[in-house]
Write a structure and sequence with these properties.
elongated, 319 residues, 20% strand, single chain, Rossmann fold, 7-stranded parallel sheet, alpha/beta
Length: 319
Amino acid sequence: MNAIYYCIRRGANSGGEAVNEDHVLALRAMGYRAYLFYIEDAPLGHFASRAPVLRAGKSMVFAPNDVLVVPEPWRFHIDGFAPMNVKKVMHCQNPYYLFNGVDDASEIEKKGISAVITCSDYTTGLLRRVGYGGVLQTIQPALSGLFQNTREKKLQIAYMPRKREFETSFVKGLFRSLYPDLRDIPWVPIHNMSLEDCARTLDESAIFAAFSYIEGLGLPPLEAMASGCVVVGFNGLGGADYATPHNGFWINEGDHFGFAHALAEGLRAATAPQWHASIQLQGRKTAERYSSEHFKGDMSRFWEPYLGENKHEYLLGAG
């Protein structure tokens, strides 16, 4: 019997690891033997996981048809897995990290990686443009059902400061300087929050300021759309998959003055019922494209042909 192992370093409290967890759960729902595979040297500690977790050990032996799914920037492990007689798939969730894992696109296949799965058409397209010619499939993630528009909106701006800390401070100060009449609008940081607290904050916020930065996709703006927020800010490049003039106020990279002006425009939209309803409708339609059904379909479209005629060997009941 064979198995599929998604390599992780920490629990599913971060975006990429949560997506890995969803992949494993979807594979198990399809009947396949799949695990989160913890391979960090540090003590595992405790983290909640909805998917089964195995920890790597020196005595562990892989069968030739086992599948290791490795993140794109993990050079040490990509190099370590290269000579092993085992199937290897790269899970590329951010194309801008790709060359932390390999020196150039040709090395992907040279390292024995037989396929690449990505999180967005933007990422898939970028991999083709850099010269990767192997098996390549977009598996679009699903938004958590926690993100819903159920509460009365407060006139406040939710934001995530982690990736653009200095720019975030600058945009906040610039906005208050240019629009002193709006300076008392609260800014609510989403940082080190549980998924539940994040969802609650978005649900009650009229505006989400998107400080997305070189993303493979960028889930937070989509989560904000699902929560009924007016989204203002950067699409992080990978957000090109979903950002349109109809579902948010999107700003060109580096246009901080444009960001401040768009925040004021977004606040006006949030207080104009018809305008607000139109933006919310377009945002909801966009978010609905990132459904569990679409995600499960993408998973099936990749894994069924990839496992091929031997897929019965991966079934949970096999062996």
